[in-house]
Write a structure and sequence with these properties.
By secondary structure, this protein is α+β, with helices and mostly antiparallel strands. It has a domain of 173 residues: Beta Barrel (Sortase, Chain: A). It has five helices and ten strands. The strands form two sheets. It has an eight-stranded mixed beta barrel with strand order 3-4-5-6-9-10-8-7.
């Protein structure tokens, strides 16, 4: 009678290792596919919105270098977008404006709702998605009437939403990177970037600004902490131009690190 082989710990480990490796590969493959499909869904939605509702006019690419070519001052140049405001409002009644940063390819509809959680993981058209939307801080005055208005967006790995804001750090000295635009029905607001830096949730970067004294203190804080060396005192802060702050997450997922970009209103068309 043949002797029955003993099952040793080594034998168990020998067969268990490839099984664990296969399980891990399937699990991480599933996570990768899930993330890819989420990214793709949001990317397709926003690409369709840009194609159908937010069209760049061919003879105005949004390149700030056109200022010199056309003899325009920094206050006069505005890129032209053909925006279907009624169509966007029919898609989403929370639609507030368009944010356009031509130098780094950011062009999205912005929403305003009663709670910052509403669009954290919900796209402009209402689908649940990690990418979410670009949205106002609900505590800020609508229509950019306050001293400082916060706009939030996720820092997506594929560069969507506010994932491209970090590019400003690489080319901050370049003239074309100094401006962003907000389009509302009836007017375009031009903002000049004067500061950006890394910070954390709850820092003074997120302080409420409700009077002139707080405004002056806030601007000093922004300039003191800024990485931006291209700012050359072209903005007259004694006039207290309204500020828009773009904020996104950075560092490990779920952490408290943030990257903020401050722009001051320099012209309205």
């Amino acid at each position: 009678m043949a002797e029955k082989k003993k099952i040793t710990l080594g034998t168990v480990i020998f067969y268990l290792i490839p099984l664990v490796a296969l399980s891990a590969a399937l699990f991480f493959g599933y996570l990768f596919l899930k993330d890819y499909l989420q990214y793709k869904q949001a990317e397709d939605e926003y690409e369709n919105i840009n194609t159908e509702y937010i069209k760049e006019v061919p003879d105005s690419s949004g390149d700030e270098s056109e200022e010199e070519d056309e003899g325009l001052s920094r206050l006069d140049y505005f890129p032209t977008l053909d925006i279907d405001f009624e169509g966007l409002k029919s898609k989403n009644s929370d639609f507030a404006c368009i944010l356009y940063i031509p130098s780094i390819g950011i062009k999205y509809p912005v929403v305003y709702s009663k709670d910052n959680e509403d669009y954290l993981h919900r796209t402009f058209e209402g689908s649940y998605n990690f990418s979410g939307s670009i949205f106002y801080d609900y505590l800020c005055e609508k229509d950019f009437k306050g001293y400082n208005t916060f706009l939030y967006g996720h820092n997506m790995k594929n560069g969507s939403m506010f994932g491209k804001l970090k590019k400003l750090q690489d080319t901050a000295e370049t003239k074309v990177n100094k401006y962003f635009y907000i389009y509302t029905e009836g007017k375009i607001m031009k903002y000049e970037i004067f500061s950006f830096y890394h910070t954390t949730v709850g820092s003074d970067a997120y302080s409420e600004v409700s009077d002139d004294k707080q405004y002056d203190s806030y601007i000093k804080y922004c300039l003191r902490n800024s990485y931006f060396r291209g700012y050359k005192d072209e903005i007259d802060f004694t006039d207290r131009p309204k500020v828009v702050t773009l904020s996104t997450c950075t560092g490990p997922a779920g952490g408290t690190e943030r990257f903020v970009v401050h722009g001051a209103l320099i012209a309205i068309k």
